[in-house]
Design goal:
By secondary structure, the chain is mainly alpha-helical. It is built from 6 helices and 2 strands.
Length: 172
């Protein structure tokens, strides 16, 4: 992608490094835009970890139909879905930091709180979480159906144990 700052993560593919750069762009996490944080708030390594954790969440969500890597989802045009999972992990990490550093104090009737962004982060996490869970479940179902229709793989429901395969004879 043109215009994105270079990302160098040892052992990562160029495509994955571009994804990490696009996550940073989506977050607008650049030193010149961070008024309250010196430099970048989230490192490239942290973004990469958040993306890998999102992939693990995707793979661990039923139906358990195989192990997917970044390039598998990218080839299916699911970068946007993975972006949501990655953002959730980043915002949860930032939220934990904000919660740990929350310090309300009062002086002469003036109430001030340091690191009081947790409620704002939680609202963004909730919005993204709904989109992530719904999208992830829809994609997993679609891949499962595709696998069952195109070959012997796929995770069958309990109805399969009761009914088995159906063969529709259209020649009658």
């Amino acid at each position: 992608m043109q215009g994105l700052p270079p990302v160098d993560i040892p052992g990562a593919s160029e495509e994955f490094c571009q994804f990490v750069a696009s996550v940073r762009l989506y977050l607008r996490d650049f030193p010149e835009l961070n008024r309250l944080v010196a430099g970048e708030e989230t490192s490239d390594r942290m973004i990469a970890w958040a993306a890998i954790d999102a992939m693990e969440d995707f793979n661990g969500t039923p139906p358990l139909i195989g192990t997917f890597v970044f390039s598998d989802l990218a080839q299916r045009g699911l970068r946007s879905l993975l972006l949501k999972g990655t953002l959730i992990n980043i915002l949860m990490s930032v939220g934990l930091l904000q919660t740990r550093n929350h310090l309300p104090f009062s002086d002469g009737g003036l109430n001030v709180a340091v690191s009081d962004k947790t409620p704002l982060l939680q609202s963004w996490i909730n919005i993204l979480m709904r989109q992530w869970e719904m999208g992830k479940n829809n994609v997993k179902r679609a891949i499962n159906i595709e696998n069952m229709l195109t070959g012997p793989s796929g995770a069958h429901t309990e109805y399969f144990a009761l009914s088995g395969y159906y063969h529709l004879d259209l020649t009658r």
